[in-house]
UniProtKB/TrEMBL annotation:
Residues 318-336 have a biased composition (Polar residues). Residues 337-351 have a biased composition (Acidic residues). Transmembrane segments: none annotated. Residues 1-64, 313-351 are annotated as: Disordered. This is DONS protein. Keywords: Developmental protein, Nucleus. The gene is Donson. It is found in: Nucleus. The lineage of its organism: Eukaryota, Metazoa, Chordata, Craniata, Vertebrata. One of its GO terms (biological process) is nuclear DNA replication.
Length: 559
């Protein structure tokens, strides 16, 4: 026999016997506890309900026979759901926002309920239109007391008609209120039309948006091009053709805008007449010093609107401080207000900083910083904004064509390692283009009940998932305005790197008006009301709309 080892027990060799012994002891303890209590003892509280099996999932969990019961939601929980994203966000530590997963279940609606209740900040006066939001949404969740059954089970003819209306850019004008939305074929076809978007490249087994931070979702998927240079060249060649096609459509004002989504940054191209600009514009975010240097070396003229705005604000604050320190000195006050005294340049500072060495005669003995160090010192403010929303770069006019060629030939546009290695950037467009694939947003409706005092109130929800572009958001709200009788709420999930696209570029032309926009963009594929909204100057700044509500056909929102 093997020698006994101190502290060694062979009980682990027979786990079934050990488990049976534990269950037997448990039954004995329960039988002893269930005996009648002595006289005068307090009655025993009812036992707790059986614990849920932690190894069960939604697919294999037993379900009760018959019709499924509706989800019951208390009024406070329902309120907290709407306000879940409305807490003020600190700039230093932004709240991380989770992207919607590829697979959703019937209880996804309740996952967001257990959150603190907050009061939303909304504009004091409701408006008949909400501002343009140029960020890409990943998920929309509409809630209304009116059912969304009209969005379910579209007939084959209605679906085909919706695709045809999209391709032919058919304009649909609905009445202010529809009594029977489920019976309105025009409404259901328009709903299908609003879900269509165009994508390149289209790889069904890969999620092509979002691309920033998508390595975890793409990891493990088949990517035969990662180690095949010939295949990578074919993919990039096709991508270049599609990219050029989109730009030509944009320049001809047949495409209102499109997005180029890389694994590091996103580019938004907008046609002349949109966002208050009379020329083609392209905004890039986030950027780095290396990318900006490469653009400068290619002769691309661009600006950093948020960095310049910060400098202007600091200059104004310094001017105000000078005025305060000057006190009753009229001369200093006048020179400061008139701006006659120019601000010292960095070059003058550098020359002055080394002039004293020459005066002392030791300029050859002291080692001066090289030109690269001086340049980095000058650009320290630009380097600090790398990978941040403040690094937004704006390209205007003919420089956008130079940017097109730069992006096509830029080797760093495609990852060389990792799950996205060799995969071209994603092109998103509201209209068809060469090499583009028609895709549709995913939509589903859920019915629930909210507890209001002592009664229950029916609440319906509509969830839209996918790359939701600005025109799609406006089109959906126009449909819901008629179908839900002017009353609904929505929670909007934003792809955060694109929220900064709502920055006002301050390049509006005084002669620009709605008439010229409609004349110059006759067939861009947008509804006239959507075109009116997107033609306005952005007003949201670095933020995006996160909560939208309509009451009595008037909008309020929270950004």
């Amino acid at each position: 026999a093997a020698p006994a080892v101190p502290g060694y027990s062979p009980g682990f060799k027979k786990p079934p016997a050990m488990l049976r012994l534990k269950r037997k002891r448990l039954r004995r303890s329960e039988s002893a506890a269930s005996a009648s209590p002595p006289c005068g003892a307090a009655p025993r509280a009812p036992s707790m309900p059986a614990r849920r099996n932690p190894f069960s999932s939604l697919e294999n969990a037993p379900r009760a026979a018959g019709n499924p019961k509706p989800i019951i939601i208390s009024s406070c929980v329902l309120h907290s759901f709407f306000i879940q994203l409305l807490e003020p966000v600190c700039e230093e530590k932004p709240v991380p926002r989770s992207e919607p997963s590829d697979r959703t279940d019937d209880l996804a609606l309740t996952n967001d309920f257990h959150l603190p209740v907050a009061v939303p900040e909304v504009p004091s006066s409701p408006r008949h239109e909400f501002p343009a939001d140029w960020s890409i949404k990943t998920r929309l969740l509409f809630m209304s007391s009116q059912p969304f059954t009209w969005t379910e089970h579209l007939k084959a003819q209605e679906e085909a008609q919706g695709f045809a209306q999209h391709c032919r850019t058919t304009e649909t004008n609905l009445p202010q209120s529809i009594q029977e939305p489920k019976l309105s074929v025009e409404l259901r076809c328009a709903f299908q039309q609003s879900l269509v978007y165009w994508l390149h490249p289209s790889l069904p087994w890969l999620q092509m948006f979002p691309r920033i931070g998508a390595d975890r979702k793409i990891a493990g998927k088949a990517n035969p091009w990662s180690q095949d240079e010939a295949l990578q060249q074919v993919l990039m060649s096709e991508w270049s053709v599609s990219f050029t096609s989109l730009y030509n459509l944009l320049r001809a004002k047949l495409c209102p805008y499109f997005y180029v989504c890389t694994y590091q940054f996103t580019v938004l191209f907008r046609a002349a007449g949109l966002a208050g600009s009379d020329v083609i514009t392209a905004v890039i975010s986030p950027t780095t010093r290396g990318l900006r240097e490469a653009m400068r070396s290619e002769g691309i003229e661009f600006s950093l609107p948020l960095v310049e705005e910060s400098r202007t604000r600091k200059q104004k604050n310094s001017d105000v401080n000078l005025d305060t320190e000057a006190g009753n000195s009229l001369e200093v006050s006048n020179s400061t207000e008139d701006g006659e005294e120019p601000a010292p340049s960095d070059d003058d500072d550098d020359e002055a900083s080394f002039s004293w060495l020459e005066e002392m005669g030791v300029q050859d003995k002291v080692k001066k910083p090289d030109a690269l160090s001086i340049k980095l010192h000058k650009e320290k403010h630009e380097v600090h904004v790398d990978h941040k929303p403040e690094s937004l770069a704006l390209v205007k006019g003919t420089n956008t064509f130079t940017l097109l060629n730069f992006l096509i030939n830029c080797k760093s546009l495609v990852a060389v390692a990792g799950p996205q290695a060799g995969l071209p950037p994603t092109l998103l467009s509201p209209v068809a283009f060469r090499g583009g694939t028609m895709q549709t947003l995913k939509a589903r409706s859920i019915n629930a009940k909210a507890r209001v005092q002592l009664a229950y109130k029916d609440i319906s929800s509509l969830e839209i998932v996918g790359p939701i572009m600005p025109h799609a958001l406006h089109s959906l709200t126009m449909l819901l305005k008629s179908a839900q009788r002017g009353t609904f709420s929505a929670v909007l999930y934003t792809h955060e790197p694109t929220a900064v696209f709502n920055t006002n570029l301050d390049n509006a032309s005084p002669a620009l008006n709605k008439e010229s926009i409609h004349k110059d963009l006759p067939a861009c594929g947008l509804h006239p009301k959507t075109l009116d909204q997107l033609s306005q100057c952005p007003t949201l700044g670095k933020y995006s709309i996160r909560f939208l509500e309509m009451k009595d056909y008037a909008y309020t929102w929270k950004s």
